[in-house]
Amino acid sequence: MLFKRAASRLYHVTLRAFPRRHRDAYAAEMIDSFERELAARLARGRGWSTRWFVAAACLNAVGTGMGERLRQRRRRFGPMFSPLDVTLAWRMLVRYPGLTLVGVFGMAIGIAIAAAAFTIVSTVMESRLPLPDGDRVVSLANWDVATSNREPRMIRDFTAWRAMTSIEDLSITRTVQRNLIADGRQPDTVTVAEIAASAFRVARVGALRGRHLLPEDERADAPNALLIGHDEWVNRFGADPDIVGRAVQLGSSTYVIVGVMPDEFAFPLNHGFWIPWRIEGSAYEPRSGPVVSIFGRLGPGATIDSAQAELSAIGQRLTTTFPGTHQHLRPRVMPYTYAFNDMDDPLNALALRAIQLALVLLLVVVCVNVAILVYARTATRQGDIAVRGALGASRRRIVTQLFVEALMLAGVAATAGLGLASVALRQLNSSLLIVGGQVLPFWMTLELSTDDVLYVAGLTLLAAGIIGVVPALKATGAQVHTRLQTLSPGSGSRMQMGRVWTTLIVAQVAFTVAVLPASMFHAWSALRFRTSDAGFASGEFLTAQLLVDRTTAAPTEEGERAFTARLAAAHQELERRLQDQPAVSDVTFSMAGVGEERALVLEIEGREPPIDLVDYNIVAGSKRGHLVRFNRVAVDFFDAFDVPVTMGRAFQASDTGPGAGRTTPGVLVNRTLVEALLGGASPLGSRIRYVGRSQEADERDVELDRWYEIVGVVPDFPPTGALDVERVSRVYHAAAFGDVYPAELAVRVRSSDAATFAGTLREIGAAVDPNLQLRDVATAEMVLEREQGLMRLIGITVSLAMLSVVVLSAAGIYAMMSFTVSRRRREIGIRAALGADRNRILAGIFSRALGQLAIGAAAGMLGAVGLEQVLEGEMFQGQGAIIVPLVAALMLGVGFVATLGPARRGLSIQPTEALREE
Amino acid sequence: MRRLTRDPAELIPLKHATYQVLLALGDGESLHGYAIMQAIATMTGGRESILPGTLYAALARMVDEKLVEESAPRDDDPSGGPPRRHYRRTTFGRAVARAESERLRALLDIARAQKI
């Protein structure tokens, strides 16, 4: 009842957007229609759709109402502005190139950032699936309330959830990688959706050629069916018209292509290959098995709320049946896309919107700066404005003209901003997605849409409003006619900067000094990060992740042993065949790639661990110790990378295998660990153990509380400054074939371009074992370049934003100083005429102008110190004492330069001229 | 048959809301605003809807353009609520709706020919 009343009241208020005439005629009926519709929806339940209706109706009333006002206004007064206004506005752009450049640059950056943020936020928050009735497709997931994480191992739950009646065609899928071996093509690892046939009933999309997967394909004795996507059909199979019925190999199994799906169909996530689901869920223990996604379509009349109620009831039964595993699990139904963007948590959506709003506020700050410049320019046109007023131009007319000028400035900036945003989004698409190793879901595209352009149009109006209307209203205030009386040739403007503007400038100086140094520092770090040489011959190394297809049967201890043996044999054979290649000089492997080692907490025997706890995401064990990175590497790993052992011995074959099971296996450490943790003392013979494990370090790869002995020291690899900004302590363990899974393979090629060997590597891999997968085959150089690209993009974006702040701050300060000193020009002239000492006059001018700036700079420095304290030295990494005063000095310098010109002009004025003006 | 005083093509293409309202107001039917909202939802199987703000702005324009004619608010509405105007499609409104339908049909034919 309260909700209904509040909604009606809100709607009532929003109707004020309509012109009075429209309100008088229709408001009562509109409110009645709104309330009836609301009552009908509430009768069906107060879900999100009802809230959405209220929000949409209110926004619609505001939008339509404003439109009606404009329509009415146009009918009464004709068009809002004339072509002459546009011509004049264009002339102003050309006549004041400095202001045009600074204003366009600043606003273009602000608009680009705000537009890109809007695109990203809208893309991420997208809840509509582009399928027929896509809003009826839902995801089902288990939520662990104890850890606040999703539990994706739901294969056993799926069998129970199938009893649901509110969801039709409940379906399941998982993503696997397989080697695709087709006649006439190089083997390639492809991403395949192993999916229930019911998924195609959920999607309601038919095949372009042949058929989609059917329930009979799921039978164990049915022939292996493969469905392919349109892009795969065109790119891999040359759009072969006889594709249906063609046999290909996926891993070691032969599949027959049964159909091709239409263009742009990539359901469930971003797939181009689909094979039938043949995993028997009941064979798995609860909360075990592969990671899966479960989804379905809401049945007729069902809502997410009703489906949730039914699922919760089933969930409670499962909790009773499996208390050990399901005690903290709460199944959830959500719009399909929410399972991939985490928008089922309202806090995430709120956080995204908050970021978006903050970026719009950044644009507002930028616009306020430009408004100061425009205001200063408007002041110089006071006479012109007063004369126009005297000749009969209404205030509305003059404000409109000034608004059109601002709109043109903002329009040019918006066009440039849209271009910048488009380029940045394209860059982000290519670098971010490659680095993440993932592609976006098919319904997400990071590109500017019509909505984004409309949003930018809104931002442009907002910007034009701030930079045009506010100064225009001030400039055309009540005293405009009195100004005409005081207007005389050579006299300065009577407009004043006012306390508000002055306070804004001072606040801006403070803000710039407080925040800019940290942003500059971090932008520089981002630009510097990974932009230098990798520290090894990265062009000669071809890297790939090595995996072997796993069986879909429920895992057993014996099965795991057999798998490890198979993996070890395949890996060893692959290495042997690669070593036989004349083009290959070395082959090695490791658990993690170079520079990608995983974090652990380390304790050194006989040494007190540090008092401060490790500031890292440690999920098991203790945080009391030293944060180090660990890797498990082949015995010949350092040889292959030409890294010498500088102290002690290198790894030996006896450091792996059964011999390594002795009480204290040997490990190698890097130079930084010796210096940072052992004070440079010889580490040989020292014993270390791990006491805490981070989330990225798998428990299979590391054993906590086991002692290891340091047997050798290697230099920092990669060298500090190459891949790492800070020095990192590293520990290396020896690994044999089959010890690490997946393994990071590194093949050193006798050529400066290892990429040429990629095809041969794939062929050899497929020949050794069709189930042996080599993923992400690329040269080490290419991998680094991709990461550098992203970091560079971030660095450039932050740097541009910072540069725009500096330029605008400087321009704002310049305008204010120049303006205030110009106003005192005659006073300066008269004092000079009366014989005052020129130096004293100058000192007077500077002390007043720079005094204001000094207050701002001092406040900013205090703010910077405060921020540094709050962030415990994270902001400047010890460089604050240099950077903060530098920025403060820069701001003061700008103020000094801005004051100098007008002051000199004031001193050069002839006394007679000054007295005549008075 | 009454001759039209204006060419329906002058108003083509129609705004989506205008077309929706013209279709919802069947021949000879006289409906009030909320009934038009319901009729749109019903005739499209719930796929399309119209919000009161858009509806009444459209109706005001359509009355001006003589696409619909309105009757005085009635006090005897059995469903209660404030007195509501009823709207009826004019002959001109019907002709305009037909012209818009022809335009859309031509587009649809092109799409069908391209198997879109």
Written account of the structure:
The complex is a heterodimer of chains A (918) and B (116). Helices cover 52% and strands 16% of the residues of chain A. Chain A has 26 helices and 23 strands. With 116 residues, chain B is mainly α. Chain B is built from 4 helices and 3 strands. A 3-stranded antiparallel β-sheet of chain B has the order 1-3-2. The longest helix of chain B has 23 residues, at 91-113.
**Which residue ranges of chain A are poorly predicted, with pLDDT under 50 across at least 5 consecutive positions?**
483-495
Computed CA radius of gyration of chain A, to the nearest angstrom: 35 Å
Spatial strand sequence of the major β-sheet of chain B: 1-3-2
Number of helices of chain A: 26
> Segments of chain B where pLDDT lies below 50 for 5+ residues?
none
SSE string of chain B: HEHHEEH
- Mean pLDDT of chain A comes to 82
Secondary structure: number of strands of chain B: 3
* Broad shape of chain A: globular
Structural class call of chain A reads alpha+beta
Number of helices of chain B: 4
The Cα radius of gyration of chain B reads 15 Å
* Adjacency order of strands in the biggest sheet of chain A: 3-4-9-6-8-7
Distance between the termini of chain A: 71 Å
**Biggest beta sheet summary of chain A:** 6 strands, mixed, barrel
Which strand-content bin applies to the residues of chain A?
A: 15-25%
Question: Brief overview, please?
Answer:
With 918 residues, chain A is of the alpha+beta class.
Describe the secondary-structure layout.
The complex is a heterodimer of chains A (918) and B (116).
Chain A: H1 2-14, H2 20-43, H3 48-77, H4 83-95, H5 97-125, E1 137-144, E2 149-151, H6 155-161, E3 167-181, E4 188-195, H7 198-203, E5 209-210, E6 225-228, H8 230-237, E7 247-250, E8 253-260, E9 273-276, E10 293-298, H9 304-321, H10 323-326, E11 329-335, H11 338-341, H12 346-380, H13 382-390, H14 395-436, H15 450-475, H16 480-486, H17 498-528, E12 541-548, H18 557-579, E13 584-590, E14 598-604, E15 618-621, E16 626-634, H19 637-640, E17 647-648, E18 666-670, H20 671-678, E19 687-694, E20 707-714, E21 730-735, E22 743-749, H21 758-768, E23 772-779, H22 780-823, H23 825-833, H24 838-870, H25 880-907, H26 911-917
Parallel strand pairs in A: 4-9, 6-8, 16-21, 18-20
Antiparallel strand pairs in A: 1-2, 1-10, 1-11, 3-4, 3-7, 3-10, 5-8, 6-9, 7-8, 12-22, 12-23, 13-22, 14-16, 14-19, 15-19, 17-20, 18-21, 19-20
Chain B: H1 16-24, E1 30-32, H2 33-43, H3 52-64, E2 68-70, E3 86-89, H4 91-113
Antiparallel strand pairs in B: 1-3, 2-3
